[in-house]
Amino acid sequence: MTNEPPADAELWGRARNGDERAFGELFDRHSRTVYNYCFRRTADWSAAEDLTSVVFMETWRRRSQVRLSADSLLPWLYGVAGNVLRNHRRSLRRHGAALERVRALPAAVDDAAAAAARLDAEHEMRAVLDSIRRLNRKDQEVLALCVWEGLGYAEAAAALGVPVGTVRSRLARARKRLRQGAEPARADGHRRGDRPTTLYTEEAS
């Protein structure tokens, strides 16, 4: 008989009461997803690393206010990430001292091939971001969550703090505007779940 890993709700109940080890487990579980999301919104690996740290710092700081959606912490993390991304420079400045401590930790050395791959990924992601620049910020957020991150309508609504119907209408509007222009670049390879998706792919709720 195998032991099932504790659910987010169980870990968060402990973390909210100050259990740093439980919070660390949640970080290990979700940080890669948040990191990928931040990279897809910035096309900058270094910024994504810092912003991911800020997202979890803010979540820990505001732990008494956190509300899970369907027993998952991830929609809340996406919501915090959205706020952090909207206030990118201010967020990094506010958490500057803590980020310096994080940066001081030993890091794995990239070899030349890995470094080149990171640069290529940044260039490709900038092309993707350029391709959706015609959309307003709110439509870009819905597109990123539902298409790139693979969230259902309810999860995206929880992350953004809006009704499900608003998510549906924003996503439909975004797709319509993109169809009216040239086909945008794809955002493959830096995602949740190793599943390539185009901006036009229909997602189930």
Please tag this protein with its features.
205 residues, globular, disordered C terminus, mainly alpha
Short description:
By secondary structure, this protein is mainly α.
What does this structure look like?
The chain is 65% helix and 0% strand. The chain is built from 10 helices and no strands.
Give, in order, the helices and strands. HHHHHHHHHH
Shape call: globular
N-C termini distance: 34 Å
Strand content: under 5%
Q: What's the total helix number?
A: 10
- The overall average pLDDT, rounded, is 80
Characterize the main sheet: none
- The radius of gyration computed from the alpha-carbon positions, rounded to a whole number of angstroms, is 17 Å
Low-confidence stretches: 182-186, 188-205
Structural class: mainly alpha
Total number of strands: 0
The amount of helix comes to: 55-70%
Summarize the topology.
Layout: H1 8-16, H2 20-42, H3 45-61, H4 74-86, H5 88-94, H6 96-103, H7 112-131, H8 137-148, H9 153-160, H10 164-180
Helix pairs in contact: 1-2, 2-3, 2-4, 2-7, 3-4, 4-5, 4-9, 8-10, 9-10
